[in-house]
Amino acid sequence: MYDFQIAAADKTTLYRDLASALEGLVSGEPDPIANMANAAAVIFETLPDVNWVGFYRNIGGELVLGPFQGRPACIRIKFGEGVCGTAAATRQVQRIEDVNAFPGHIACDSASASEIVVPLIRDGELLGVLDIDSPKRARFTEEDEAGVVKLGEILSRVL
Ligand code: SME
Q1: In the structure, which protein residues have their CB atom closer than 6 angstroms to any atom of ligand 1?
Q2: 105, 83 in Cβ contact below 8 A?
């Protein structure tokens, strides 16, 4: 059993501890689905104020739902559509303070108010995206972005 107790007072420590828990979970495991599943679980359990954490995989130039925690979500997203599709098309992190103000945002859970999406890239290939939603507006700061990008770097090596 894995029982991570991550209760850090500040975000730097929180993301450092989360990154090391994630490294521990995925190290030595070559199966990408298993790694995405455990990653979604540990991130969802650790970060406060999140209602959806999961993956969309790049399958032939379309994003297809992967392992996640949260409510059932839309299955296929075209590149350029919504926050996830924009992250995939631009290969840029999308940190959205108010998803309702984002043109084309795809509302999977009406509770979601803000969102961060990190593209997962290895050797120039877009593997997919890591998507985290929050019911709180402007939940994700620059510090969160730096922390989630680090998580994405760990994951890109094992997907
Ligand atoms: N809101 C996302 C869709 C995925 S869900 O949030 C799980 C988007 O606009 O791409």
Answers
A1: 52, 73, 77, 82-85, 105-106, 108, 112, 115, 131, 133
A2: yes
Ligand 1 centroid to residue 105 C-alpha, Å: 7
Taking only the tens place, the pLDDT of each residue in 60-76 is 999 999 999 999 999 99
Strand partners, 114: 134
Tell the residue nearest (CA) to atom 5 of ligand 1. 108
The answer, yes or no, to whether residue 2 has pLDDT greater than 70, is no
pTM of the predicted structure, to 2 decimals: 0.95
Closest CA to 77 of 93, 57, 100: 57
Place of tokens 């631009």: 90
